Records
---
Amino acid sequence: MTDQLSIWRNGTSEACPERFNMARYVMKDAVGKWPEKPALIVVDGANPGVASETWTFAEIDEAIRRAAGAFAAQGLVRGDRVLIRIGDTPRFPIAYFGAIAAGGIAMPLSSQLSADELSYIANDAEPRFAVLDAECPEFLTTAQRLSPDELGGDVLDYADTHRDDPAQLVYTSGTSGKPKGVLHAQRSVWARRMMRSGWHDMHESDRVMHTGAFNWTYVLGCGLSDPWRVGATAILNAGDRAPEVWPRLAAHWMPTIFAAVPGMYRRMQKYGDGLREGFASLRHALTAGEALSRMVHEGWLEKTGKPLYESLGMSEVSTFISSGPEHPTPKGAMGWPQPGRHIAIIGEDGQPTPLGETGVLAVHHSDPGLMIGYWRDEIRTRTAYAGDWFLTGDLAVMGESGALRYEGRNDDMMNAQGYRVAPQEVEEVLALHPAVNECAVTEMPVEDGLSIIAAWIVSAAAIDVESLRDHCAAHLAAYKVPRAFYSIDALPRTANGKLQRRALLSVKAGDEIGM
């Protein structure tokens, strides 16, 4: 701590080696020590007792390097972007790590994205290759299209890349309403070492079960990269993900670490039975992606008796604030800076605030997990910093112990099922509906720990809610479609004409036209 300002340096982290490849780092130790140990078990919630696929470390390593060989044979050169849109199958991480192993830049995308969204991203990133499954909607791209079955080339050694070479391009909703690319270096996975001691505490004896989809960076990191790095077994569900299936899956496969978003923990407590018996094998559970409410946290502890450790992060730096076995969740706060992190709370003057004052949570530019920058947007990258500090956009308060209390966002970004969504992105689609004169959307709390995306519509005609939903679903990923619609005579605005989103929440329930 420094002069009672909101600055915290939690030790220092070992420097990432100069010659460094993310995929090699994730795989090499486990392949050398436990080649025949299960690295990945794929299960199906509809049939909890059966593994649809099991891959050893030797098998998954060979598949990754064969995918790298296939990319190289197709002409991939360093820095080529590889768009990956595959459903929930081991072919996704094989393509993802294979692209990185070959020296390319992996672009993991959700299978929920619409053709419009895929076309926008492909036009923005200009990928050299697009790995697509048969269920992918047709979209505009100049990329060479490959199926997952074509990623079986000769075994290629991992590329001799530099730690600062680009490795992955992650698209997330931007404050302008359009998805923006976040470019990460090979070294970004090195920063996950700090998560091990500060959050998940994974070891080679662990069995890690994650509830998310294969493509999500939360899964690619916490559900695959982290366990594989230490020789733990990853268990992923490629089938039914209803809340009631997870206790049954856990009872059979006996994970020692379980990971999900807070919304899933809430739904399991509401709809799932036998949580204490189902999760008896756990050492602890993990959560990230959205804020964890006190009610959901306490409910989990009561129903399972197992610790639940929360982490805060974002696409630009992954998770960096957390609680864990060595530092349990502090009262009234969400966690501490992970060991090796250099964190500050920045005020409106661009300087660290005094302790106890609200400001913008910031990460020092030296953090190895911090992005290279926003894709082809030097201005946005430059303005995201205040001096040496990257501004996350999250508001927080730092206590004397370094513990941080989360205070929400300092912009209009919404959180839908753990995904960040810009309201402008949804509004642009709604505005194209012929019955909509004006519209606005915002995140709306409906109960403790649960929020939905809601839309307010100005229209001269009667509104068909199903028509609105169908229109949104045709152009947006399912998690971006509003759950509730309200009719309003005029949108609330300031004297200067600026939309007041928070004032939308004062609309009475009687104005609701569909939910």
---
Amino acid sequence: MRGICLLLGFAVLLPFGEALAIEPDAPEKLISADDAIGIQARRLVEKRKGPAADADKHRLAALTSFYADRESRPIWIARGVLSLGAKATIGEIRRADDWGLKASAFQLRRTNVSSSASTQELAAAEIALSLAVLKYAHHARGGRIIEPSKQLTTYIDRKPQLLAPSVILGEIAEADDPGAYLQDLNPQHPQFLALRKALLKQRGVNEENGIRPVRLPSSGPQLSLGKRHPDVAILRQILDAPVEPDREGASQDPEVFDATVDEAVKDFQRQAGLYVDGIVGRNTRSHFSGAGPASVSEAMLLANMEQWRWMPRDLGEFYVTANIPEFHVRVVKNAQVVHDERMIVGKTDKQTPVFSDTMETVVFHPFWGVPNSIKVNEILPSLAHGGRVLERHNLRLQYRGRPVNPQNIDWSRTDIRKFHVYQPPGGSNVLGEVKFLFPNRHQVYMHDTPEKHLFKNKERTFSHGCMRVRDPLRLAKAVLHHDRGWTMDKINSTVDRGPQNNNITLKNKVPVHVTYFTAVADEDGNVQAFRDIYGHEKRIRLALAGRWNEIRKGRDHLAPVKRRRIVRQQYNDPISDLFKQAFGF
């Protein structure tokens, strides 16, 4: 262990002296040469604070343990030079931008060693590359935003799909193609790959040959005849407008907008159907930059790709997925959509959370148990002032399993959270004919609704957080046919029986993925964009840009509902309006 700590010390504090060497008689084994630097390196790392520093400490500790188990044998050095696998790995890390990451985030400077590199340089390259691999894996698996529910909002209940550093180093050390191994650390879901294709397409990258066409920056000064700017040299490359020599044969300045560039720009404007004036302003510049539609920006694609890094690697052979900004729920079997329907999601202040769980039960003619938030904020004020909200909406009140007359209770001093408030099955039940349970800490589920007219709206943010499905019986058929072979006739007969024991426990739990993708791409890289109704995309974009202090996290929707103090005053019982807003009554 002594040697390993110093190995890490050399990688962190190379300027302070030699900490690692390669034994002349054992060129494949790394050894230590300076105890003090190893100790100093650990202290240096320990002084840093924050998630990034914690990740660095974790990676350093993992390297220590990994190389100790290998008796300090290197991964990347073979016969005194960097191996072919090392070079392939370095090349792949440098192409990190093609996977929605940032190649500039990985320190590869010390891996630039020549064939005559010293043992100290090779040792530095070994450690630098191993650390870069671990950091790449951390980012590829979603670790740039390590705790979305804390750093962004509690409504995003996702976690990066991280692998243990020891697993990564062990697997890449044994990989036949380390570069391909790194690629596979990124999500391999078809939709992630489609978004990646859209990203490359927008950047003008040809994935087959890696050619990146010259692009004029989408923003910059107005360019016209006689002006000088570095962007003019880019224009020359795009328009194939060479620099004409002067009368003496001397080359002119390629950054000067001369007559050759002026004429080439006018030809471009004619072909593009633009106003022909030879001036490269905002409109002409946008055509040169090759920017995609204004509604689909690179930042949008990157934010959506980042969310895929938090998704389970295996979504399931059969699963239900609900995309909030799209207002759609789908059933997927063997990667094919077998059911697709509209849905209603939570209001902006009562959002539908983003999470994955498993469906366990389908309930026909369900009871509705009123959650504490509605009890405290919407029912209690009415009861405390003599309102008749319970009978108006066919709600029942129980305490310890026994019916209670609400008129016999002083609600100004009573905690309504201790009571069970529910609505029995029936035509006015807010859950309609069926609900789908996938127990979760957010206490949300999918269900029917009697208010079908709401599905005509383009944006459907009307609920308290649960997802209402337009044709829930078809959804029930899709789930129960897969689980039990039920037909639509069987579904209808179960509904027609009325409110009996209609809790159908699934033989095989069904994965449910509630997502928030504002960009969905097809296999050709064409993107359909949806409005960022809850602001989650914006939060992710800010986080990826390092602008953490600008993120508005909003309220903690998982915090316990507090007891509400009731002040006696004139009261007109607005509960009916509240229910109309919540349930369409």
